[in-house]
Design brief:
Blueprint (H helix, E strand, L loop, with lengths): L2 E5 L10 H10 L3 E6 L5 E2 L5 E2 L3 E2 L10 E4 L6 H4 L2 H8 L7 E5 L3 H7 L13 H6 L13 E4 L2 E4 L4 H11 L27 H14 L2
Parallel strand pairs: 1-2, 1-6, 2-5, 6-7, 7-9
Antiparallel strand pairs: 3-4, 8-9
Helix pairs in contact: 1-6, 3-4
Amino acid sequence: MRRFAVLLYPNFSLQEITCLTSALTVWFGEEIDFIASEDREYRSEEGLRVMPTRTAAEARITDYACVILPGTIDPLPALFDEKLMGFLRSGVGSGVVFAAISSAPILLSRAGLLRGRKFTAGYFMQMAETFDFVEKENFIHEAVVEDGNVITGIGMFFREFAQAVLLRFGYDAGERFMRDTPEEYTQEDLTFYWSDEDYREFLQELGAYAP
């Protein structure tokens, strides 16, 4: 089993990565660590409160096949978090895949992980002009860009971003990954049954609540 990590920082966006994280864990049985610079509660931009499973000091970046960076409406706290930056910098030159969406590619830029690599991002261009560590000549204005061990995406293309990461690790999510519309389903398609084995497991679990 490969190990995946998601970085947490103030106002991170769950919405931009949950297609990816749910597919990795529920569909394909992968393990995800949630890593932050401090062992404390982090609030997502949706208002959900999340606790990390490991701190940056406890984690070793090369233990992970892929490090996922969600976007954030306010990237500055993460951008100037030296513990987080140190964790990312420790991955320079490694074979770890970095997958960053929306504003998060700017974190990779500051950490040196985008040096000489093509990338995309969902942050405003004035931010790219402000920081000299952003290689503006390599900024490609496309939905998802892959260059070497880095996958970057714009937030509105979260499905395409998720699909690119899954395909990188050999997972076939299907051509229409999470894209079917309700009118394409029949009533039969929308009627769901457990297998006999799954139903028996449910009844066993139910017994703990309703003996």
